[in-house]
């Protein structure tokens, strides 16, 4: 029996970044995040597009949107990406969050709202993914160093 060697479909592969000139008032996430790159797998493309549109939701909600049994859905995502659906969603949202923190002047509360997080959970999510606070990440990317919160 032969094994198939394929490239896992990770969030980094499909995420295409932010639009060039985001306006001051963002009403929908899709006005801010570009269409995803095609992964050449329709199921993953549909899933990635749903994550782009709806943001932070439970993986069971995405399975329901795709009319799939959650266990089959999670198994398919694991097979195609090498990570669970929950991990895939978090990695994708982390990419979007990092772009928003680095390239916009939105407050972290606004970024959390754009991504579908409650007011306090965005900072916790960001810290768990990147091992630093959003303001530390913004300073690191803009100034090349972590600066103190109360001083330059």
Task: Give an overview in words.
- The protein is an all-alpha fold.
- It has one domain (11-143): Arc Repressor Mutant, subunit A (Orthogonal Bundle), CATH 1.10.10.
- It is 55% helix and 0% strand.
- It is built from eight helices and no strands.
- It starts with 10 loop residues before the first helix and ends in a 9-residue tail after the last helix.
Please name the defining characteristics of this protein.
single chain; 152 residues; mainly alpha
Low-confidence stretches: none
- Please state the average pLDDT score: 86
User: How many structural domains does the protein architecture include?
Assistant: 1
Outline type: globular
> How many β-strand runs?
0
What structural class should be given to the helix and strand makeup? mainly alpha
Major beta sheet, specifics? none
The CATH architecture is Orthogonal Bundle
Portion in beta strands: under 5%
Query: CATH superfamily, please?
Result: Homeodomain-like
What letter string, H or E per element, gives the SSE order? HHHHHHHH
Count of DSSP helices? 8
Radius of gyration from the alpha-carbon trace, in angstroms: 17 Å
| Overall CATH class | Mainly Alpha
The percentage helix is: 40-55%
What fold name stands as the CATH topology? Arc Repressor Mutant, subunit A
- N-end to C-end Cα span: 61 Å
């Amino acid at each position: 029996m032969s094994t198939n060697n394929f490239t896992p479909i990770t969030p980094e592969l499909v995420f295409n970044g932010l639009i060039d000139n985001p306006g001051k008032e963002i009403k929908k996430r899709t006005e801010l995040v570009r269409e995803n790159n095609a992964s050449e797998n329709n199921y993953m493309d549909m899933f990635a597009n749903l994550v782009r549109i709806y943001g932070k939701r439970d993986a069971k909600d995405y399975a329901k949107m795709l009319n799939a049994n959650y266990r089959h859905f999670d198994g398919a995502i694991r097979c195609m990406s090498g990570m669970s659906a929950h991990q895939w969603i978090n990695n994708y949202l982390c990419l979007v969050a990092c772009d928003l923190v680095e390239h916009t002047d939105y407050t972290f509360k606004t970024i959390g709202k754009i991504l579908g997080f409650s007011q306090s959970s965005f900072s916790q999510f960001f810290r768990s993914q990147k091992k630093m606070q959003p303001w530390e990440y913004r300073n690191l990317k803009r100034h090349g160093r972590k600066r103190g919160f109360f001083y330059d």
